[in-house]
Amino acid sequence: MPDTRVTKAELLDWAGELSQQRCASLDDLRSGVVLLRTFLRVFPRLAERSLKCKMQPRWDWEIALNWDAVEQCCIALSLPADMVDRPGLQACRFRAVYNLLVALYFMYHVARDRDFAADFAHPIDGPVAHFLQSRGAIIAMTAGGAIVADELLPRPSPATRATRSPESGGGYPGSGLDGDG
């Protein structure tokens, strides 16, 4: 287990750094911009989607567009409904924001280091923890481009990889084929 616990402040700092937006408090998430930009950085393939959003919203309808885009990201990644509480996120409620930030933080780091482990200062909801330990998280990371499916497959060792060599008459070692057809 890691020596330190990831706190709410660290999650907010991380989201701010990743999104290149100010994010020192839950209220900084109110426009949806920080979460949307964080989604796009964690899951680069989401940028291929035509999301209607306003990165500098001034009106309520522009903020609503951003939350619609966040919701579309969650749907595209097949994130479980337990993990995405839109009314709670829009109201910047701790539990809703914390669970989503934990999930994004965890998937971001796991995509970069398969042995990543984190201990969070506050408990995360059971369904969120279950999702992060499930195949669903891998599917979401693959769908979003955080990881490439080929990276998940074991690499064949040079001894077991079939190669064509002129010394073996053009056949494949160990295959019983001599290459003459």
Can you describe this structure?
The chain is an all-alpha fold and 181 residues long. Helices cover 46% and strands 2% of the residues. The protein is built from eight helices and two strands; from the N terminus they run βαααααβααα. The protein has a two-stranded parallel sheet with strand order 1-2. The longest helix has 19 residues, at 94-112. The protein is globular. The chain starts with a strand and ends in a 29-residue tail after the last helix.
- The order of strands across the largest sheet is 1-2
Q: Report mean pLDDT, rounded to a whole number.
A: 83
Structural class: mainly alpha
The count of DSSP E runs of length 2 or more, i.e. the number of strands, is 2
- What percentage of residues falls in helices of 4 or more residues? 40-55%
Net shape: globular
> What's the end-to-end separation, in Å?
56 Å
Uncertain runs with pLDDT below 50, 5 residues or more? Answer: 160-181
Q: The biggest beta sheet, please?
A: 2 strands, parallel
Number of helices: 8
Tell me the strand percentage band.
under 5%
The secondary-structure element order is: EHHHHHEHHH
- Radius of gyration (CA) equals 22 Å
Summary keywords:
two-stranded parallel sheet, disordered C terminus
Describe this structure in a few short sentences.
The protein has 181 residues and is an all-alpha fold. It contains 8 helices and 2 strands, in the order βαααααβααα.
